[in-house]
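sanity check this record:
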Amino acid sequence: MIRTLLRAPQGAGEVAADALRVLAATSIVVAGIGWGPLSGLSFVLVTGAMFLPRLLGVRPAFDIVFGVASLAAAWSSVLDIYITVRWWDLPIHFLTNGIWAALAYLLLVRFGIVADAATLPRPAVSAALMTTALGLSLGVLWEMFEWFGHNFIDGEIYVGYTDSIGDLLIGGVGALLAGCSMRYLAARPGVAHDREPSPVVE
């Protein structure tokens, strides 16, 4: 994986994904100076996370969507868009929960923590269920972080029962959609991804 991370980008898609990583790194300085150290720190975390798709060697389209979603979520927080446009967090939760759940699934598979769905009797169903479960779990962690932030960092962070349940629901739907698309998302560039599961021995 380190070799995949360090190799030069190949094609317009990988160049665009790397450009988003440069933009994220630049955002550390811009947000840190313009909005304070906490905002800069949020982009440190985002920038680090944006190298994970590169490390895994996923499709450039997946890499680009992950970068765009992560940057949009972070800048929306820094610019208080979640506060001024209350409905904006729903599409962000849908997109980020889905794409982060897909990445989490690929990481767990790549490190041998969970089984690759392609080796199971019902790969599509297995990938969809696992990705949805991961998406819901990530959504719960995010809501806990929002609660912590509201109570101990910034009271302007909006929290509430209806908001939390709505965020979890829409995030779960995004994760389910990502799970149903895992056959495409899980494939590496240039590698056939229509793999058949291993036969089950009765």
About this structure: Residues 190-202 have pLDDT under 50 and may be disordered. The radius of gyration is 18 Å. The longest helix spans residues 123-152.
